[in-house]
Amino acid sequence: MDLLHGKLVVLPFKAGHFMVSCQRRSELLKPNLYQGLSLCDSLKHSCSQIELPVKSETPSWRIRQSHALVISSNYPQNADFPRHYSKKEKKPFPIPIVELRRAARAKLKKQKGQRRNLPPSNSGLVIKRLIPVAYDVFNARITLINNIKKLLKVVRVHACGWCNEIHVGPIGHPFKSCRGKDANFRKGRHEWTNATVEDVLLPVDAFHLYDRLGKRIPHQERFSIPRIPAVMELCIQAGVDIPEFPTKRRRKPIIRISKSEFIDADESELPDPVPELPPKPILSEIPDSEIVVPSSEEEISMLAEETLEAWDQMRDGARRLMRMYPVRVCGYCPEVHVGKSGHKAQNCGAHKHQQRNGQHGWQAAVLNDLIPPRFVWHVPDVNGPPLEQELRNFYGQAPVVVEICVQAGAAAPDHYKPTMRLDIGIPSSLKEAEMVV
Hints:
Residues 159-244, 329-414 form the APO domain. By secondary structure, the protein is α+β, with helices and mostly antiparallel strands. The chain is built from ten helices and 16 strands.
């Protein structure tokens, strides 16, 4: 068997592992040494499967098996940027409506004639195993806010004065993408100002519910009920006790009469509840006047790493809580409601809200609705040349928190590298960019 023209095949396996597998080929064509080197091929293929042609100098009678080197990769080399939805279209459902109806019919058919068992979140009880997770999410949010206040003192973040776009870097990017007021007169150019914490972490508020199984909030009571950050409300419903925002804690599951009617179980026989100490102390936000700026580069890098850990911990914990405690979002505007059914406040001002009388179109929320990541352009080299308008297709994007931490000295997480396009070679000039196939 002739194996003079062998192939080195790189295949996906497990993260952080290498595997050598055996492969025999009897007929191989002459390999194309320039295949897969164009930009289109690099965007089509991921780093999880790469084929590299090699030429063996060992005689065929000495080779019994040709080896394949397997390099691990759980994430693709490049990924599409998050889609920008127009204000005139409704957000897509996380699960298609056809599948939701099919699952509901199958569930009713299965439970017909059987006693319906409600999950702990729908029966009014608190899931005890998720209480530490709720405290971790609450403290991670506070840590993230405090660290962002410190990093804004050492990392320059720009915000456009006419639209909601921001940029992390020494100077604002030159892309003509402004959609604010009088953008046509400015030819789409941004007018950059200094960004604040609210520009980095978008405030998403929700109504605080004393009883999450109570009646829906009517339109007339929308001003009498306090509004707090939606992540904070999710943590309170999951077991975090805050004296300023009391909530009803049940110790027995409710007695469901119908879909919208229930009766609380008799808890008079139970002993008086003993106040329990929280599993972890609750942190508090640091005032702006007490912010201490890190002095050395080592402190800045450690602060950036801590901020990335808090960001991932908050998102991962919130994702776990949303599986058991439902969160709703309006399909037309960013309004979020933590609860099974959305409120009845007619304060939706999105496209064609007059036809809906200001009512929200509630649907199941995803994690990005509760914690918007807000993607920004990734700067490959802070000390290098600024971004260029003509080379826009070669730059990547990352969540603003990740971009701030990376520029402060933290290592880029693996699950954000596909959109950051760290493995893409950026041409040095426009002439070189035009030569890319």
